[in-house]
Queue: 2 jobs
Job 1
Amino acid sequence: MNTKIIQAEDGADLSRQAAHLFAELAGRAIEERGRFVVALSGGSTPRSLFQLLAGEEWRSKVEWEKVHLFWGDERTVAPDHPDSNYRMSRESLLDPLHLPPANIHRILSEEAPPERAARLYEEEIRRFFELRPGRLPRFDLIFLGLGEDAHTASLFPHTPALEEKQRLVVANPVSSLSTSRITFTEPVINHARAVVFLVGGSAKAEALKNVLEGERRPKHWPAQLIQPTEGKLFFVVDREAASRLTRS
Ligand code: 6PG
């Protein structure tokens, strides 16, 4: 599996590099299959990328009507809650681009209990990809972030979701946050054609070094689980986040 590290100067450059990659992958997918199926990451890092993609310079570089958006994970809050990954994406990308509602595949995070939200999302994915039982969806691109504890999506250290190898989406109890999260499982992420980590800031330097250069401890550093079986793996990192890496 080949891992490509794309070094950016700072947060703004990280977003520019990621926008280039997004547009390139989108063009290829649409040319080959007539659509581009993406799972967005949450947290704060992607916001500036989404704003860039929705802006004058980039919006015309992607055939947005052929882009289908999913989310790799979501907090168990309402879609208009300040912590909602969907809300962040809606404000920065969906609303400015006026994407067709049929292209937006939101995690119904307000459904309770969280396991119900996970099952509904699993059904949405199976329906969209017309999956036979036991088959995995093949996303064209899955964006991921990296937590300071080396979690990714909502695969947090020492949580049950790390062990899940059959389901596509699960509700993952995260005791360190006193909440449950809805998250893609490792098999879904590793079946993607491309996985792109966006990692910026000095606070992520230790986690990034552990994930890329540390001993293999995926229960402790869950981002180490991400090794696409047939897809490409990219880390778009800024100088601060890459400051602890020893290899180029
Ligand atoms: C979430 C995420 C999570 C995030 C990392 C990095 O729902 O929070 O999907 O995995 O990507 O925690 O978050 P920041 O970009 O805010 O540092």
Job 2
Amino acid sequence: MSQFTAAFRLRNQVEELPLAACTTMRVGGPATVLRFDDLDDLAELLGAAPRWLGKGANLLVGPDGVAEPVARLGPAFAHCSIEPDRDGGARVQVGAAHDIGRLVATCVKAGLAGPECLAGVPGTVGGALCMNAGTAHGWTFDFVERVQVVLPGDRRPVWLPRDEVPAVYRASGLPPGTLFLAAVLHLPAGDAAELKKLSSEWRRAKAASQPLTERSAGCIFKNPDPAQPAGRLLDECGCKGLRVGDAEVSRVHANFIVNRGAADAEQVCSLIVQLRRRVYESRGVDLALEVQAWACPPSVHEPMKGDGPA
Ligand code: EPU
């Protein structure tokens, strides 16, 4: 905490917290956590080399927590405004702290097509930009026109047009440590009733096939390719119900680990390694993490060694 001035600490609500309290999986050790709400404090914050946190919906934190301060964007970055264009569509400017579900609801109601593909995805717009969050119906960068970011090593925000963001499946493609502040979405006109129907259907389908009411970090692994979804591979390898302590592979969807009560980060990481080994040994596929892993043992992501299937 001492790396910040007293004035900074006061303005930015700096506190010591277990990161378990800041993630949907509810595991992870301590850190200095702050709420960043004023760009005038950016230089001091960047001097402390922070990590950026949204709603922690796609994050696994190791048992010892992290040494760097962890910054969450405050209400000053939760804005959302719509500017209609001549064709019935609009540009939506949205801050990184805005909730994804609220953005989807706003656009659906306004008859603006695109974000409905994210119906049911938890988290902040900043998290969605960082991860290029998506579903089978589309990804975040499908409808982003430009993003406002602070690139690692820079001290000021810049706007990058979409074609300078090398987004791919589940990654913005920008360097690790990039801070996302806002985005402008360019959305065509759609039929509000039809968008509402679609988004409700997709939300319902997600709730029926994923353990959304339990504590998890969403899908643990990336799909190695669209024809080989990680959930199906894990299911076929008999992983549903595998358990280390209170960390359990969901019986609803095998690519989710759920915290059944008092799971800790060590249990979750140990289960992840078991799952990777099982799929590697029986199918020869080295599953890569989809969740962001902070200060977790290297075994959760280093390449699998040893024999694949005989
Ligand atoms: N499957 C199984 N067993 C399972 C889980 C899935 O056999 O336990 C089969 C399903 O029956 C289906 C196929 O695997 O035939 C794909 O499953 P699903 O439709 O559930 O989609 P997914 O590829 O597992 C992806 C995203 C999800 C997103 C859904 C819905 C990834 C890693 N996951 O899941 O995103 O919600 O599509 O669009 O790309 C996330 O990113 O955290 C996430 C949950």
